[in-house]
Amino acid sequence: MGVLRTNVPRLIDHNERRELLAEATWRVIVRDGVAGASVRTIAAEAGQSTGSLRHIFPTHAELLAFALKLVIERATARVAALPPRPTAVETVQEVAAELLPLDRDRRAEMEVYLALFTAANADPKLRVPRDEAHLRMREGARWMIAQLDNGADLAPGTDRELEAARLHALIDGLAAHLIYEGAAADPSWARRVLARHIGSLAG
Amino acid sequence: MGVLRTNVPRLIDHNERRELLAEATWRVIVRDGVAGASVRTIAAEAGQSTGSLRHIFPTHAELLAFALKLVIERATARVAALPPRPTAVETVQEVAAELLPLDRDRRAEMEVYLALFTAANADPKLRVPRDEAHLRMREGARWMIAQLDNGADLAPGTDRELEAARLHALIDGLAAHLIYEGAAADPSWARRVLARHIGSLAG
C-alpha cells in the first residue's frame, strides 16, 4: 500500500477540484469573455487535462452554471458576515453596496454574472442557474425594503413589491455601469446614488 | 450598355446593403447570441456570400459596431418622433418608456445592445461604439432630469448629475430585467416603476 501511494498522484477532494475549476473558469471568462471560455481553455488555465475536466463537468453549461452558483454563494456569505449597523438605513446601504462591484473580487464576480446572464439568453441550459441568481437578488431587494418598513424609513402606503423591483433594477444597472467604467475609475458615485435612493424611500 | 445591364446583378446601394447586413446580424445575435454571430452565419442569414460581407465590413467587430450604431439611431429617431405631451412628467415618462424593450422590435434591439455591451468587455474593438451608446443614454437621462427641473417636478437643490446617473442605471436595469423575463411576460410593471421613480423626484 505504501509503495502504491507514492506512485499515485494525490487525489484532490472532489469539491476542492470543482472549486478550483470554477475559479479557473472565472479567470478565463473575465479575460476572454464567455465566448472564449471553452472546456480546453479552462482546463489549460486550471492545469488539468480536458478529460479530467469533462469528468467533473460533463457539459460546458454545467461548468458555467457551477461558476455562477459559486458567485451567488460568495455574495450571500459576504452579506451574512456584515457587522451589525445601528440603523436600518445604514444596514440596507451596506448590504446593497456589498452587491456592487466596488473592489477587484466583486468586479470579477460581477463580470462572470453579467456575461452568463447574457449568455443564458442564447443557451437554455444556463437558464436555471440564471433564474436562481435573479430570484436570489430579488429576494435580497425584498428583504432590504422590508428592513426599511419600520414606520420611519419607508413612506406609508408604499407598494413594497414595486419598490423591491425598482431597487433590484437600480442595483443591477449600477453594477453594469461600474463594470463598464473599468477597474481604474472611482466607484464612489454608485454608493452616493444608493444612499440617495435608499434615503428617498422615506418619502 | 443595355445588354451589359441585363447581365449584371442589380447593384444594391451601399448604405442599403449595410443596413440589410446589420438587420441580418441582429437576427443572428438574437437567435444565437454574440458568440454565434460569425461572418459566415450572418452572410447566410443575409443571403450573401462571405466575401461580399467582408467587402462591406472588413472585420467582425466593424459589423457588430455598425449594428449597435443602428440600434441607437433607431431609438433616437423614435424619441424624436414622439408627440408632444402636456406636462414635463408625462414627456419624461414617455421618453424613458421608449428606451425600454416594451415591444418586439425594442426587445430585439435591446438584446443586441446588451449582448454587445457584454462582448465589449472582452473585445476592445467593440468599445468605441459601446462607449458612444452609453454616452448617448447618459445624455438622454441628463435631458430628462433637465426637463423635470422646472420649479415643480424636481426637488430644490437636487444634484442633477447624480439623478441622471440614477435614472440611467434604473433604465438599463429595467431593460435587462424585461429581456430576462421574456417576450411572453407582461412588461407593465416596468412602466409603473418608471412612473413611481419619475414622480418621486419632486421630493
Automatic annotation (TrEMBL), chains A, B:
GO MF entry, a single one: DNA-binding transcription factor activity
PROSITE patterns cross-referenced by the UniProt entry: HTH_TETR_2
Location of the HTH tetR-type domain: 15-75
UniProt keyword list: DNA-binding, Repressor, Transcription, Transcription regulation
Repressor recorded as keyword: yes
Ranges annotated as DNA-binding: 38-57
The protein, known as: TetR family transcriptional regulator
Organism of this sequence: Spongiactinospora gelatinilytica
Lineage: Bacteria, Bacillati, Actinomycetota, Actinomycetes, Streptosporangiales
